[in-house]
Amino acid sequence: MPVDRDDSIITPAEMSAIDRDAALSGIDSFRLMTSAGTAVSAAALRLYPQALRFVVLCGPGNNGGDGYIAAAALHASGAQVAVHALGDPAHLKGDAARACAGWGHAGEPLAKYRPRPGDIVIDALFGAGLSRAVPDEVAAVMRAVGSEQLPVIAVDLPSGVDGRTGQVLGESFHASHTVTFMARKPGHLLLPGRTLCGSLEVFDIGIPQRILAAHTSGLSENGPHLWAGQAHALDPSAHKFKRGHLAVFSGGPLATGAARLSAAAGLKAGAGLVTLASASAALDANAAHLTAVMLKEIGDAGALARWLADKRIGAFVLGPGFGDLETARQYALLLNDRALVLDADGITAFKDDPSLLFEAYAQGETHLVMTPHDGEFARLFPDIDADPTLSKVDRAIAAAKRSHAVIVYKGADTVIASPDGRAAINTNAPPWLATAGSGDTLAGIIGAHLAQGMPAFEAAAAGVWRHGRAGAKAGEGLTAEDLAAAIEPLPA
Ligand SMILES: NC(=O)C1=CN([C@@H]2O[C@H](COP(=O)(O)OP(=O)(O)OC[C@H]3O[C@@H](n4cnc5c(N)ncnc54)[C@H](OP(=O)(O)O)[C@@H]3O)[C@@H](O)[C@H]2O)[C@@H](O)CC1
Ligand SMILES: Nc1ncnc2c1ncn2[C@@H]1O[C@H](COP(=O)(O)OP(=O)(O)O)[C@@H](O)[C@H]1O
Ligand SMILES: [K+]
């Protein structure tokens, strides 16, 4: 039966381990394949009752096995079905060979498939086992199906999409619907994979939850389940000092807007007090624009050190529009016993000696959140960035472990990762969030959460989610000012 889309995400390697454990506990693997293939045929009939023909493209592994089961079920329902196989079906093994025997008709080779109007393509070429770029004959079929604009139902994943990374290996199908089994894989949520799946259905093929739970790591889709236990930190009835004091560092006189966006977002996101810390040259520009946000003159490391005697300032945002990299370095190192969101220039400031920053924040509970976009990530973690074998999730986790910081690796598929290995993929950000100052707003929201005492991972994950919600609420064409105004209360 279809299950509610649960928040957990499993990698193809975890899926294999689950599969092995299921077999060890006596679960019949052919029954799982039958359940999977039947779910695909049910989706095909439900979505395309008027289809003239279902064309099932079957690969050389168990994904192909699911395809043969689907073909047999569609045929039994009275539909017209054609099967085209990649490779010689006589070489199929195990459950896939049995499924092919159950189909029982002579199939045609894949290369002989000529798409025709009215076809519904069922893509059972490769799923979790795709290990390299798809062969040329497969790529040619993908292009032919694409140019005819035929609907494609993908079994487990659109063939060509790497389930671990979401990257396309050579070429891929662009599915209108994907039926996956048990839980989503990273490739369903990471880009570009997410855009190639169409609507996504997660079907429960009957592997017990206990086996699934034993093999799932700390990866999930970002959502309230991650911080529900921490939402009390944002109690709106609390005294303003209890709701936290956030400080944001301003840039110079010609670059004050970014920090004000962070500060405004921090206030709207629930910090009790927000202070903009500004060098004297930028005080007038800031004073002319501030009302609820307070202003404090901080011009150098000495002034900051004296200000830090006030222990009520719980969290800081450093980087948006800041400009002066040497001062940013000094400030970040001075702040190492406070919660800090380091963004933009604050990140770039450490490009020549990242370990200086990482060592400064290595002690105690994680209290540094870094919010790099691709370029900033590559500046701080060039070797991790350059490793083509790593997914965006792998890269974010490796960076978090090395830096002792929560990493918010931004983009349309922002990944939030903790040094303890937990990670979340965010999916609620509309494309129009890519606007000047949007990242500054995000830094302010996360800063507000830290100021209110939320742990770093939860603060960051909740911040990214609220930022996405605000983007959806403000709508297409938003500016960063609209975004701050659209921040909604954090759901309990
Ligand atoms: N786990 C479960 O519980 C359940 C899993 N189920 C289903 O099993 C699927 C996973 O099956 P799978 O492991 O057999 O992998 P699959 O995607 O069929 O591909 C492997 C084959 O492709 C080949 N191959 C790979 N890349 C290639 C390339 N570029 N070009 C050419 N060949 C290439 C590879 O060959 P090799 O790399 O060994 O040369 C091998 O022959 C999963 O997605 C789901 O649909 C369901 O039945 C329900 C229960
Ligand atoms: N295509 C996209 N879809 C959704 N969100 C996006 C997209 N591109 C960027 N974002 C989000 O917009 C924000 C941009 O931040 P950033 O790159 O720091 O820009 P800026 O410095 O202009 O504020 C990030 O939160 C990022 O995740
Ligand atoms: K597939």
TrEMBL record:
Task: Cite the binding residues for K(+).
Answer: N63, D123, S159
The catalysed reaction is:
(6R)-NADHX = (6S)-NADHX; (6S)-NADHX + ADP = AMP + phosphate + NADH + H(+); (6R)-NADPHX = (6S)-NADPHX; (6S)-NADPHX + ADP = AMP + phosphate + NADPH + H(+)
Q: List the cofactors.
A: K(+); Mg(2+)
What EC number(s) is this enzyme filed under?
4.2.1.136, 5.1.99.6
InterPro entries, per the entry: Carbohydrate_kinase_pred_CS, CARKD, Nnr, Ribokinase-like, YjeF_N_dom, YjeF_N_dom_sf
Q: Which residues form the YjeF C-terminal domain?
A: 223-492
Concerning SUPFAM superfamilies, the annotation shows:
Ribokinase-like, YjeF N-terminal domain-like
Source superkingdom: Bacteria
GO MF terms here are:
ADP-dependent NAD(P)H-hydrate dehydratase activity; ATP binding; metal ion binding; NAD(P)HX epimerase activity
Key words of the record: ATP-binding, Isomerase, Lyase, Metal-binding, Multifunctional enzyme, NAD, NADP, Nucleotide-binding, Potassium
Cofactor note, please?
Binds 1 potassium ion per subunit.
Binding of (6S)-NADPHX occurs at 62-66, 127-133, 156, 258, 321, 373, 440
Q: Where is the YjeF N-terminal domain?
A: 15-213
* GO biological process terms held by the UniProt record: metabolite repair; nicotinamide nucleotide metabolic process
Q: Which residues bind AMP?
A: K410, G411, A412, D413, T414, G439
- UniProt function note: Bifunctional enzyme that catalyzes the epimerization of the S- and R-forms of NAD(P)HX and the dehydration of the S-form of NAD(P)HX at the expense of ADP, which is converted to AMP. This allows the repair of both epimers of NAD(P)HX, a damaged form of NAD(P)H that is a result of enzymatic or heat-dependent hydration.
Family under the similarity heading: Belongs to the NnrD/CARKD family. In the N-terminal section; belongs to the NnrE/AIBP family.
**What binding partners and quaternary form does the record give?**
Homotetramer.
Question: Per its record, how is this protein called by name?
Answer: Bifunctional NAD(P)H-hydrate repair enzyme
Origin species, per record, is Pararhizobium polonicum
Q: Which gene encodes it?
A: nnrD
